[in-house]
Amino acid sequence: MKKHIPNIITCCNLVCGCLAILCATRGLLEVASIFIIASAFFDFFDGFAARMLHVQSPIGVDMDSLSDVVSFGVAPTTILFVFMNNLVGNLAPAVRDSFVQYLPYCAFIIPAFSAYRLAKFNHDERQHLEFRGLATPANALFIGFLHFSAQSIPVLNNFWLILAFTFIFAFLLVSDIPMFSLKFKNLHFKENLIRYIFLLVAMVLFIIFRFGAFPIIILTYILISLIRLPFKNHI
Predict the structure, then answer these.
(1) Which of 55, 136, 149, 189 has its CA 20 to 30 A from that of 109?
(2) How many helices (DSSP H) and strands (DSSP E) are in the chain?
(3) pLDDT single digits (tens) 76-95
């Protein structure tokens, strides 16, 4: 029975992703975003359970990737698509009735790039110690919570900025940029300095912005990853 436990947890990840899509299509963006968090929770614990129970398997790896395409690819993209459509509705009539009304569909490059990124991750031996490109859960927390951040950061209600983020983050998914992992091998401060700094900043941002903090936290994560590039062999 125990060999099925990680796969059951993975299925919970998938179900939450499906519920996020359903809620987003009904305009319940806040609820949809919460299901993204639930998916991330199950995504962490399926691998943790597999390692603890010593029941890791190729099928489990495949199931995890397939679930992630839905939960961290299609689901957050659906939220983003609805949010972008809402922003188009705020544009001047002459603009929103032009070709611009079709631009929100550009969001669906995200699931395609997410699928490629997940396949690449499964076969890239370099990514055991650090990520190459932006991880799909991180991307999902960014695009799936932009509408939350827009409530307290007015500039994020700009359609053209959100469209730009769509292309930038699609590129980051498949880029070869080294980004630090949050996995701790030990608790030594010096060896985990970057991780401790990031977690401290993330906590402060969450206290200030609540759920709207996730896009800011992910931007901070990317910025720290870029800043550490010249020093990554020393920190």
Answers:
(1) 149
(2) 11, 2
(3) 999 999 999 999 999 999 99
**Three-class SS of residue 115?**
helix
Whether the Cβ atoms of residue 74 and residue 17 lie closer than 8 Å to each other: yes
Cα 7 to the center of its chain, rounded Å: 21
Residue that has been written with the tokens 């949050």 in this structure: 182
In degrees rounded to 5, what are phi and psi of residue 132?
Answer: -115, 105
Tell me, what's the pLDDT at 124? 74
**102-106, 127-131, 163-167, 192-196: which has the minimum mean pLDDT?**
127-131
Phi then psi dihedrals of residue 100, to 5 deg: -60, -30
User: CA 146 to CA 152: how far, in whole Å?
Assistant: 10
The H-or-E segment that residue 179 falls in is strand 178-180
Q: For the chain, give the mean pLDDT.
A: 90
For tokens 């060999």, name the residue: 3
* Tokens 């650090």 found at: 130
Here the tokens at position 219 are 């931007």
Tokens encoding 153: 């950061």
Helix (H) or strand (E) holding 30: helix 29-53
Fold of 2-231: Four Helix Bundle (Hemerythrin (Met), subunit A) (1.20.120)
- 107 vs 109: CA distance, rounded Å: 5
Q: What mean pLDDT is predicted for residues 166-193?
A: 84
Contact in structure between 16 and 137 (CB atoms under 8 Å): no
The pTM is what? 0.91
User: Nearest CA to 31 among 45, 44, 21, 46?
Assistant: 21
